[in-house]
Design a protein that fits this description.
- There is one protein chain.
- By secondary structure, the protein is α/β, with parallel strands linked by helices.
- It has three domains: 84 residues, Arc Repressor Mutant, subunit A (Orthogonal Bundle), CATH 1.10.10; 240 residues, 3-Layer(aba) Sandwich (Aspartate Aminotransferase, domain 2), CATH 3.40.640; 124 residues, Aspartate Aminotransferase, domain 1 (Alpha-Beta Complex).
- It has 16 helices and 14 strands.
- An eight-stranded mixed β-sheet has the order 3-10-9-8-7-4-5-6, with helices on both faces. Strands 11-12-14-13 form a four-stranded antiparallel β-sheet, covered by helices on one side.
- Strand 11 and strand 12 form a beta hairpin.
- Helix 15 packs across helix 16.
- The two termini are 28 Å apart.
- The relative contact order is 0.12.
- The protein binds pyridoxal-5'-phosphate.
- Pyridoxal-5'-phosphate binds next to helix 8.
- InterPro entries: Aminotransferase_I/II_large, HTH_trans_reg/aminotransferase, PyrdxlP-dep_Trfase, PyrdxlP-dep_Trfase_major, Tscrpt_reg_HTH_GntR, WH-like_DNA-bd_sf, WH_DNA-bd_sf.
- In the C-terminal section; belongs to the class-I pyridoxal-phosphate-dependent aminotransferase family.
- Keywords: DNA-binding, Pyridoxal phosphate, Transcription, Transcription regulation.
- This is GntR family transcriptional regulator.
Length: 501
């Protein structure tokens, strides 16, 4: 067995913007590329390196896990951790060295491109509310009444911060339903969650700020933030939601944390009260901002909806984001942000510079929809309908897949996650399987696509499927059989590839 070669001297720079575990990872990759560490070499023990670097053991462990996931290191139980014996030449050749040296200026990994499921309405699309159950007649009556009214407010340039009566309705609704205390001046109407993020970043972010992002987390937001040059620090999610201690260990001074506390996207867990308090405490001490994405909390099937994280925010550190995409329909393109009190004026100023607002006609119709009680009635009906539809789909997938998958019946939201169990040939490639399902006419998304690195070992494999539009048991059974065929076709390809390798 090879020994630890010339005790590796790794140096970290505490003034560098990159988190320490990433710096450690990059130093190892550079040492491998430069030939200082060779395939089969044993690397220092966790505790030893942590002492040498005067950092926490957990930080070194995080770096090692990342290197294992990426294939640079192998853990061999009690024998220790080694440089992979099967490193491709591309990693260790001189050409790779140059690339590595350049790459040695720590950069955070770019996320996987978001799965492109376009704007079609194929079955099982996650995040799409029941389009068959939207009260279209009521809606068209309200829109047409507004259009006919001759109200000049619906014809002139819209107010960039949002139509005042809708901002008032939203503030009242949030106070009553989500425990969020705010005034209409803090509410800004936007054209979707990414537009909300843009307003937040323009108001509060500096170039290359670092941000905690849930791992796995909402893929469209991840891609948007990475594109906006936000340096994303993946923070694991477990059964209690975001692992705040891990976030602090990896990057204690991140400027933002982007979270889905009510119903984690995509795993569906709820951030526990203890973690909520810890997260708020961290943000207060670090002077950081928490962006709460409360996208589908209105739909909860077990117990009462939990109040928003913002309702516990005593230090004005939480920026609350909501949307009408789930509770009404996404084609409306109306969502909103509640700015922190101390930043509301800045948000208001920025909306004037950055967008031309959303049509008042639709904002006014939404305000009427809420004021006349249709909103509360629609939500009540949808809660009952979705509770039923989630059972239909969960049961049908369980029946079609048997013990190949596990599904926890979601306690809220409009999608479920089916996790694939590893078979004889290891875990199935869920990206390839989801692509097959899409070819067969379904709009499911691979679970691993929600991770920063879909190929990472810690990435769970499975599918994320929306249940809101599954009309009945027959449809659920048919869709599940189509899914199963895609799964079988992918398993067969994988096992014949394994045999011929
Ligand atoms: C996690 C998450 N956040 C926010 C949204 C809302 O996005 P938008 O308001 O742009 O429709 C969605 C929609 O699917 C989502 O899944």
């Amino acid at each position: 067995m090879s020994k630890v070669q010339n005790p590796l001297t790794i140096e970290i720079d505490r003034h560098e913007a990159s988190p320490i575990y990433l710096q450690i990872g990059e130093r190892f990759k550079a040492a491998i590329a430069a030939g200082h560490l060779k395939p089969g070499d044993r690397v220092p023990a966790l505790r030893g390196l942590a002492t040498q670097l005067n950092t926490a053991r957990g930080t070194v462990e995080m770096a090692y896990n990342m290197l294992v996931d990426e294939g640079y290191l192998q853990m061999r139980g009690a024998a220790g951790t080694f440089v992979s014996s099967s490193l491709p030449g591309a990693v260790t050749t001189p050409a790779a060295r140059k690339t590595r040296e350049r790459a040695n200026a720590p950069r955070l990994k770019r996320p996987e491109p978001a799965a492109d499921i376009g704007n079609d309405v194929k079955p099982l699309r996650p995040g799409l509310p029941a389009l068959d159950a939207f009260p279209r007649k009521v809606w068209s009556r309200l829109v047409s009444a507004r259009a006919k009214s001759g109200d000049l407010a619906t014809l002139t340039y819209p107010e960039p911060s949002g139509y005042r009566p809708l901002r008032e309705r939203i503030a009242t609704y949030l106070g009553l339903s989500r425990g969020v205390e705010c005034v209409p001046e803090q509410v800004f109407v936007t054209n979707g969650y990414r537009a909300s993020l843009e307003l937040i970043l323009r108001s509060l972010a500096k170039p290359e700020d670092r941000a905690w992002f849930e791992e796995p987390g909402y893929l469209l937001a991840r891609a948007f933030l990475a594109d906006a040059n936000m340096r994303l620090v993946p923070v694991p999610v477990d059964h209690e939601g975001l692992d705040v201690d891990a976030g602090i260990a990896h990057c204690h001074d991140a400027r933002f944390a982007f979270v889905t506390p009510s119903h984690q996207s995509p795993l569906g867990v709820t951030l526990s009260l203890a973690r909520r308090m810890k997260l708020l405490d961290w943000a207060s001490r670090a002077g950081s901002w928490i962006v709460e994405d409360d996208y589908d909390s209105e739909f909860r099937y077990v117990g009462r909806p939990l109040p928003a994280l913002k309702s516990l925010d005593r230090d004005d550190r939480v920026i609350y984001c909501g949307t009408f995409s789930k509770v009404l329909f996404p084609g409306l393109r109306l969502s909103y942000v509640v700015a922190p009190e101390r930043a509301a004026a800045r948000f208001g100023q920025l909306t004037k510079n950055m967008n031309a607002g959303s049509p008042h006609l639709y904002q006014a119709a939404v305000a009427d929809f809420i004021a006349q009680g249709h909103f509360a009635r629609h939500l009540k009906r949808m809660r009952a309908l979705y509770a039923e539809r989630r059972m239909l789909l969960a049961n049908a997938i369980r029946k079609a897949f048997g013990d190949r998958v596990s599904i926890d019946l979601p306690t809220g939201g409009m999608h479920l996650v089916a996790i694939f169990h590893a078979g004889r040939d290891g875990p199935i490639d869920d990206m390839a399987m989801a692509a097959r399902a899409r070819e067969a006419g379904l709009a499911v998304i691979a679970l691993s696509a929600w991770y920063l690195n879909a190929r990472a070992k810690h990435a769970l494999r499975g599918i994320v499927a929306g249940f809101a539009n599954v009309a009945d048991a027959d449809e659920a059974a048919g869709l599940s059989r189509t899914l199963r065929r895609a799964y079988d076709a992918q398993s067969m390809t994988a096992s014949s590839d394994a045999k011929s390798a």
